[in-house]
Amino acid sequence: MSLGLTKTKTNGVPAASNGSSIIHMDAIRKVYDTGKVKVEALKGIDLAIGNGEFVAIVGPSGSGKSTLMNLIGCLDTPTDGRYELAGEHVSDLTRDQLADIRNRRVGFIFQNFNLLPHISASENVEMPMLFGGLPVRERRERARTLLEAVGLGDRTEHKPTELSGGQMQRVAIARALAMEPAILLADEPTGNLDSSSGGDIMTLFNDLWNQGRTLVIITHDQALATRASRIVEIHDGRITRDERQ
Amino acid sequence: MKDVFRQVGRDMRSQKLRTFLTVFGIVWGTVAISLLLAFGTGMHKQMIKNTAGLGDRIIIGWPGLTSMPYEGLGKGRRIRLSEEDIDHARLETKGLRAISSEYSNNMRIVYGTKTMAVDISGVSPVFGEMRNMIPDWGGRFINDLDMEHNRRTAFIGNQLKKDLFGEDDAIGKLVLVNGSPFQIVGVLKEKSQDSSYSGRDHSKMMIPSTTYRALTGEKYVDNFIAQPVRGTDSKIVMDSLRAAMSERQRFSPEDKEALSFWDTTEQFKFFDLFMLSFNTFLGIIGCLTLIVGGIGVSNIMNVVVEERTREIGIKMALGARQKSIMTQFLIETMIVTGIGGAIGFAISITICAFFPEQAVEFVGMPRVSPLVALLTASALGIVGLVAGYFPAREASRLDPVVAMKL
Ligand SMILES: Nc1ncnc2c1ncn2[C@@H]1O[C@H](COP(=O)(O)OP(=O)(O)OP(=O)(O)O)[C@@H](O)[C@H]1O
Ligand SMILES: [Mg+2]
Fold first, then answer.
1. Which residues of A touch B402 (CB under 8 A)?
2. What predicted TM-score, i.e. pTM, was given to this entire model?
3. What ipTM does the predicted assembly reach?
């Protein structure tokens, strides 16, 4: 399977930032306060990810991988520390500005897909473009192109419940690509899939990376991790290994 | 904006059960309250129609024989009232809204080949208003010009009209009254009348009192009709009337037989009390219905928001702004309320349209008020909105992950 999309431009930093990081975290801490107990999920993360890198985040369950990913994607706010995304201090942004970042700069792919169950695959893919203010005609066309690109050209009108796990994850990937984000974040994208559809998804990610996108992927899957350009390992809320390969 | 509507439409279609339940709640409330008030007002109108057939809170006065000696005059003397006595009373009586003399006699009427004996009354223009004699479409009652010029104009009862003219138009036609031509200027609009003092209005003819006197040479009134200012005690008005008349006619102002009254305002006292308790009853039932309906709608809304929090989280993760989420929610509620209200209104109207003819006589024609339907639907809509708005706003203020995990 190949991704028939030619990359023209992405909503990221200017290309001139060669070597400079698109993601820059400084002493990031995250404490979950459940009332009775406080869980310190991240205990000071320093992480810089450059434009066009393919980073695999690995680590045992409960080590804080998802927490970190949610912070990178601006789905959650850190308790402490500084986070710069594409040159902007995220903590200085308003809620609307954060919404726009989620809309344009990052595409998020969840382990449990998080598709809206009552609407069609095409409408799910259109959703970010709706919030991004694209005209309806363009949304339709682009949703179709994206779904064809992930191999679902004949499933555009199906509801998520009428699709297999692998198909749902491909809809989610098409949705993540809808606004041409420079950064793709995926939290265990193959975790709920069998090995064959997991392999398809991995190929898809490889293509996307080859087109110049920045990829950050959480995975337990050794095969997927070895395709990455860099592996970051987390233990108990701290980075314990960080190597390029 | 178009996008918002498209989104609302899609979400409503995709959540058929939820949409249906909310719409149903609003329909139910609207129908219940609309019908309740429709039957209430229908009944009210019918009762007023029946009770006020004779007149709207009027006093009827008859001169009689004195029953006590006064200023050297013996008892058993006949009291006769003339137009001057009525004019005097009009000026002297406190709390009087209107007064009209009434002269009446049975006369012969000829129209074409038909001859009939009819009760004819000579009255003034205010008489029509006081006695609830409403002209049917195209006609009028006796007016001031008729009075001034002793015109030979006549206002006839609807039964008399049928007897004389059948289905033909009566307005403008000439009839002979005791040999003089009179022109019909108005026909009584059919009314229910459950009491009278000299025959039903539907078979009578009314002519200007000035014309009546000129025609017959009559100097003295048969009776008069007075209407107290609304809210004034009719007893005081009657005493004041008797006092004013006794001044000129020289009878004791205490003499109840020299001038006797029929006070129809008495029966309105009961009527007013009844209507007050009836309306209170309807009001309480209506409020209870609204409360129950409101609880239903707000419960549905709460469920909606709960199951929606995750959806809101996903939308925010995809870049939806808070405003766009709330706008969609508001528009959705408005559409659901609008549809529910419209359906409820339509159902209520249909039920009233098929209301059996025979029952109308007893409980009146139920009439659905669009305003009531609008208000009920809006009230339920607002309840739903409030019940849904704040939780939805809470959800849209969370960080996307938090909302998605809820
Ligand atoms: N909403 C929350 N409230 C409280 N504690 C939380 C919450 N989310 C995560 N945690 C805790 O934070 C820690 C890190 O969780 P996280 O989900 O980031 O782990 P993970 O590395 O993604 O694990 P897995 O591989 O199982 O997905 C865990 O101890 C978890 O119990
Ligand atoms: Mg996780």
1. 76
2. 0.65
3. 0.89
